[in-house]
TrEMBL record:
Top-level lineage group: Bacteria
Limits of the Transposase IS116/IS110/IS902 C-terminal domain: 89-133
One Pfam family here: Transposase_20
Name the UniProt record assigns to this protein: Transposase
Amino acid sequence: MKAKSQAMITLKTLIINAPEELRAALEQIKGPITLIRHIAALRPGDMTSPAASAKASMRAIARRWLALHEEIQIHEQELERMVREKAPKLMKAHGISTMTMAEVLILVGDNPERIKSEAALAKLCGICPIPAQPQAARQTACV
């Protein structure tokens, strides 16, 4: 994911610094995936101009981004399959993503009996929940 983000940052930098004619043509393309696919299909030709050099560089990075995008999707699908297999009821709960559930499963590990309460899980997750105070107690604490 980090490499994919870096590729996009580099690609945006190349677009900003591309020759005016190329930059203007690319700015007309709407949508990031459409833009990436367009750039990946560029044909730079002979390296005799700054535009050809920019096209070649952008094409290589766009192709790298597309490959990383596809690889990440494959890994995410596999992760979702594994999480659904291990915790199908939790995955049906509203607002729980695959990544969140995977992190919980990793934290709990093979020994879920060690989690005796929500506070114990919070401690494992590295968070410290602040107990809610009754309205009257909050007012006195603020005075």
